[in-house]
Amino acid sequence: MKILIELKNINRMDDYLGVDELILNTQYSMSPNPIYSKKEELEYIYNWCHKNNKKIIYRIDSIVSETNLKDVLNFINEHLEFNFIYTDFAIFTYFKTLNRLNQLYYFAQTYLVNAADIEYYTSKQVKCLMSNELSLKEIQLIINGEKNNLIGVLAYGYFPIFYTKRKLLTLYKEYIEGKYEHHLQIDKNKVYDLKEELREEHYKIEELEDATLICSCHKMFIDKDFDLNQLHFIYLSNYYINDDENKIIIEFYENYKKNGIQSLKDFTEEPIQDLFKSFLYKVNEIL
Amino acid sequence: VKLMMNKIKQKRIELLSPAGNLEKLKTAIDFGADAVYIGGKEFSLRARANNFELSDIEEGVQYAHAHQAKVYVTCNVLPHQNELDDNKLINYLKELERIGVDAIIASSIHILDTCIQNCPKMEAHVSTQASVLNSLALKGYEEMGAKRVVLAREASLEEIAKIRKTTSCGIEVFIHGGMCSSFSGRCMLSNHMVNRDANRGGCAHSCRWNYDLIDNSNVTNEKINQDTFLNIGSKDLCAVDSITKLIEIGVDSLKIEGRMKSEYYIATIVRSYRKLIDEYYETHECDVEEAREEINRAENRLTSFGFLNGDVTISGQLYDRDDHPTKEFVGRVSKVNHEEGTITIIQRNYFTIDDTIEFFNKTDSYLWTVNAIYDKDNQPLDAARHPEQEIILKDIDLVSNVDVGYMMRLIKK
Lengths: 287, 413
Hints:
The complex is a heterodimer of chains A (about 290) and B (about 425).
Chain A: E1 2-6, E2 21-24, H1 39-51, E3 55-60, H2 66-78, E4 83-86, H3 89-98, E5 104-107, H4 115-122, E6 127-129, H5 136-145, E7 151-157, E8 160-164, H6 168-180, E9 192-196, E10 203-207, E11 212-215, E12 219-221, E13 233-236, H7 243-259, H8 264-267, E14 275-276
Parallel strand pairs in A: 1-2, 1-13, 2-3, 3-4, 4-5, 5-6, 6-7, 7-13, 12-14
Antiparallel strand pairs in A: 7-12, 8-11, 9-10, 10-11
Chain B: H1 2-10, E1 14-18, H2 22-30, E2 35-39, H3 54-66, E3 70-74, H4 86-99, E4 103-106, H5 109-118, E5 123-126, H6 135-144, E6 148-150, H7 157-164, E7 170-177, H8 189-194, E8 211-215, E9 222-223, E10 236-238, H9 243-249, E11 253-256, H10 263-283, H11 288-296, E12 303-304, E13 329-337, E14 342-347, E15 351-352, E16 356-360, E17 365-369, E18 373-375, E19 380-381, E20 383-384, E21 390-394, H12 396-401, E22 407-412
Helix pairs in contact in B: 2-3, 2-10, 4-5, 10-11
């Protein structure tokens, strides 16, 4: 089992020693984490990864518009020695042409919920992250039904549940300021809470450069109730967590990988807030 | 590219309508649709759209083909592991092919691939759920064997034109109806909030609910929206202004959304776009204002042009709501008796004596002022109050100007 996580603080690289593959955010991804694109930053990261035997994965998992297509392909060509996380079928098509599909991780978000869909990609050597809204029972069924063992799950963290090209916060600010003529303090690249009027849960909402993301209201986590070591990889989401928590969860899953099934609660001295088993034990109502 | 574009443009554009049941399928075709898309009982979203049994699909296909129209069946669910039985899927697809269904619409790569590999006489179309926004993704699906891709609703006219120039694969574009605020297929709000999975037909339209926006960067957790709730929902799409452009770009199919909508809605919207398209081919000019006026009479939600002109602006968001459905649709003619000088209608909304009603079909319309109303036992009524009630109207002129299938809408009270 490989551990994948996104780099969120270049000043704490040694926190990532327990990781197998380090994800770098890009302007073509749908992640709220920082983008490191300066030459000296990248050199530092590349050197650190080389020295510590870590692979680098570039994250280019936005849905690609025709307008952006050329730029995205140029970006790929400039970084072809690395692996990539994608979601758009164009990226799959491009790597197929290059005969380099084994460099891809398909983070489909909502699309991969059965073994047959997954196997379409894994049979071509594309590694696949299962959708997040699956129960442990469903995850096990998929593992049992998929032949190539190139699949992974989100094992920890907040995750996107809504992805739009609309600039929802900017538009709302413009609307309120136009209609009620008073200033509304809403900033880009800042996370807010979104709360439905009749419900208590707070969902994370953030407007990125070309999209708005809404994330889950709790951090999902898989620990002692499932054997993650049967998977090809796990992905840890470090969206909206601090550096200390980031460090702890890397250490926890590194320990899990080495020593088998562990309990997160037993591992940490300070309890981690806002954890929830989310969909792991849920059964969806089908209308 | 020029040759390909010329060939594409020689083909008349297709008007594709939704149909939630057999009656709506016939209405859509009668009012001018070149093709309809329907949901079967298996592998289809819009679980509440009275999806078709195989026997209904067969009848629908026969009706459509007899009227030179096509039928596409949506298989756009993303089946979970315990819901996906390959034998069942193959048998179902083969059965659709045998019946004569022209294409399936799917987003699951496995369902698409299974159709392509097993059903050579039936086309596979890639659903808008696959969020295709660029020519390379389209090329990938084309190489796989898909014959058409329904573009994501986030594509602008400029981008659609660029995509068109790169491929001969069929391109379908939404022109009217509900829009997801998120990329279609990428919204789990309903799933997280009320345990209803939109990708399995259970969308609870959580994007249309009211939200507070809270700044959690300080301990006070300050609510930012003081005057009104934050709405993240989208207005419906209405592309009357873009029809000429879409035809000239060389798009293959113009799609109307709404398998859950009423037959009146379908009749009115299909008729309006049919007229626009026909006008374009006859004169290269379209009476957009007339179409817009007509469409507004069927609307029950606010509309905008979505992403067709570029990024969505305030006018594309659902801030000032007006969700009250129109009550204009008052009935449909079910029988005409020339000997007795009567027509029978199925009532849908309230109307009364002295109201002015327009009867219309695909091309004609007739205005009539209600002189008297009778129930099916010939007893006089002061008003038609009960939906689905059989009502009899008597007038020689009316009988000679309308026919079975005509829609009725209230013009003046």
